[in-house]
Amino acid sequence: xxxxxxxxxxxxxxxxxxxxxxxxxxxxxxxxxxxxxxxxxxxxxxxxxxxxxxxxxxxxxxxxxxxxxxxxxxxxxxxxxxxxxxxxxxxxxxxxxxxxxxxxxxxxxxxxxxxxxxxxxxxxxxxxxxxxxxx
Amino acid sequence: xxxxxxxxxxxxxxxxxxxxxxxxxxxxxxxxxxxxxxxxxxxxxxxxxxxxxxxxxxxxxxxxxxxxxxxxxxxxxxxxxxxxxxxxxxxxxxxxxxxxxxxxxxxxxxxxxxxxxxxxxxxxxxxxxxxxxxxxxxxxxxxxxxxxxxxxxxxxxxxxxxxxxxxxxxxxxxxxxxxxxxxxxxxxxxxxxxxxxxxxxxxxxxxxxxxxxxxxxxxxxxxxxxxxxxxxxxxxxxxxxxxxxxxxxxxxxxxxxxxxxxxxxxxxxxxxxxxxxxxxxxxxxxxxxxxxxxxxxxxxxxxxxxxxxxxxxxxxxxxxxxxxxxxxxxxxxxxxxxxxxxxxxxxxxxxxxxxxxxxxxxxxxxxxxxxxxxxxxxxxxxxxxxxxxxxxxxxxxxxxxxxxxxxxxxxxxxxxxxxxxxxxxxxxxxxxxxxxxxxxxxxxxxxxxxxxxx
Lengths: 135, 454
Known about the structure:
heterodimer; B: two-stranded antiparallel ribbon
């Protein structure tokens, strides 16, 4: 199954990005890693180009919200309702309250939202979520 | 007028540069005090590991007081440049410098050398009469290096690989080679006037599980590209790996291979120095543990007989250190180095043999590339993964090489990607790794290994 991943915005947390790449590969996904410093439009371009089933955006420096507000518009524009949208990392500046953050990002159009959750735990949830999909 | 000189005149004709006078700069270098040249200090302090901290502040006054604090304890002064200047954005640097001066807060993470200019900066450098080392991270350092040398800063760190692969996502790697070729030529030309300008490569790279064979190959590539242009004094460097034995082995193989490959391209009259960086990875938040980690680094620098050590401070986990923290760290490292005089060397022949072979195997592939110049051979080798830096953010990096630590904390190659290692070399690496069966264990191991000093 094809996954597009990368770090959104002016964020250079390359270590986490590489760990996600390696973990997804070891779980059998075909990974298209756009790396650090990636804009939302570039993610959408890559999803269309690769025909990926999953878009997994990560953000470590807390600036994700500013970048992801337009997701709904782009989803509609390119008819991407069959793609599973995932975001994870530190989704706010500072500690942040998970019970407020998760619904907010779901409203922006994400199917799965992981705020300060262990990488393996998050990927297990993704695996379960994807079991219903035909590869 | 030579093509090089014409390029230089265009480069200094910049709105942020106030009347760059090449003839005056040449006179200054010809008559400069030898104490300002680190290449001279290396010659006159052969048995000592010179100690250099890190540091740079936006305003002249704060930089001056940093040097005042450092002067009694350090051997080499640092001049760390701010990040706007590193990206050639002198306009933003000028604005932030003005704001820093007005508000007395530091709004830049280093010294904006272009904005201060060489006439002002030279006054400070010559006042302290101690070698200054330029630390930056600039892909296109052509103007910065003119300014630095004109200021009396006679050591230039960096290079076309080590300032790109760890720092940038998409600065064109081929452009970086050409910009640095220009820098090497400027350094070489000035080196004929007095003592040589010293060039130093940045060995830590991403400071995240970089295997010694990659560090050594990249160090030597940058050294060769520099010597090719006529530089006569060059420092190769590497950072504390987290394994004492691997540090000892790396230092030996790096020194030997550097001399061997310099000879291979026909250079026998250059001085090659070894620089050791104290731990560049994540630091413990416990200051006592930090002190211990720094002591170990100083001890290893003594054991590998490094020509220079670049220090860290106990405040590393908490942000930019104060000048007092920094001076204290240097003073402690000087103390440790002095106490360890005459420390014996250790030999691990098996490890040395394997690492030397890996380095030779990678170089064989680089030299066998069909391109006609060395920089193109190296460029192609980065493109096709013969050189692969773990955790580089750059789009050109191959990202197939995966490394983990073995039970003795040595960094080992788990997946070699396109590294041209022989079966013998790769099997040796594999024989040291023990991860068990869990498919998540590689990632867990990597996470553990990155935080090994926490």
